[in-house]
């Protein structure tokens, strides 16, 4: 029902690039600043249509690997299998779903978007052989619209399929932390590099108008008299006045982010800690002390906890089913 398949056939690489560039250029971001800065070279190459010598009509299924789901059966070690192997997994298995790198909603030439990742999660979560899900997170965040698909999949697996979803994370910042916060538990997978937080929203854009004006172009923006507020905040931002775009776009998103994290963490979060809801990052030890995460361990610990929680979910589901008239 939920299966996400690879695209086949000859697909114009230009179309993929246009989709990726539109995601990069158009929106606000839940992203850790260092990740945003380090992505500059990639963005530059895309804007300059640098395909590294690849033929523009190359079969894109050769460019990205199959989505890896690790299936861990009861008492066994995990192995990376294709999604079709869900049918071969022993009953009571845990599916490990990787959520890594900069998150965007739609897939690209070499990566999977969160819509596709969410579909994979639902495939696994709905399967009779899978009793729990572990999100293997290592991400500094991503675009605003990348968050909802995974949040919705997490909620559906927990509430409708009655199975626990846990997060095992190294870097879990901004959008990636919002995603993790919706899980039943968050486990840092080490006490050295694991970081959590960056609860905030930012946007940046490049004003290319001065460059093109030097080339002899003249820009005209004409609005209908009935459209006095259309693009107003953006137009003011181009003039160097950022207050309206902060008020109309960024602040509502930031408040929603804060409220969701508070609700998801169920009172565990120490809101008195300076910066905890305002973009500050915390290493694992402090993150646990302040309620951003639940445990410090590794992926194996997360799988073990997921198995234990699956048993509790089963009991609760049974009790709830008996209590209904």
Please give a structural write-up.
It is a single chain. With 325 residues, the protein is of the alpha/beta class. The chain has one domain: 2-enoyl-CoA Hydratase, Chain A, domain 1 (Alpha-Beta Complex), CATH 3.90.226.10. It has eleven helices and eleven strands. It has helices at 13-26, 33-38, 40-47, 114-125, 147-159, 175-181, 209-214, 232-238, 243-265, 284-289, 299-323, and strands at residues 29-31, 69-72, 79-81, 93-100, 130-139, 141-143, 165-173, 185-188, 195-197, 281-283, 295-296. The strands form two sheets. Strands 2, 3, 4, 5, 7, 8, 9, 10 and 11 form a nine-stranded mixed sheet that branches. Strand 4, helix 4 (114-125) and strand 5 form a beta-alpha-beta unit. Helix 4 (114-125) packs parallel to helix 5 and helix 8 (232-238) packs across helix 9 (243-265). The chain is elongated and about 70 Å long. The two termini are 30 Å apart.
Summarize the structure.
With 325 residues, this protein is of the alpha/beta class. Helix content is 39%, strand content 16%. Strands 2, 3, 4, 5, 7, 8, 9, 10 and 11 form a 9-stranded mixed sheet that branches. A two-stranded antiparallel sheet has the order 1-6.
Labels describing this entry:
39% helix, elongated, 325 residues, alpha/beta, two-stranded antiparallel ribbon, 2-enoyl-CoA Hydratase, Chain A, domain 1, disordered N terminus, 9-stranded mixed beta sheet
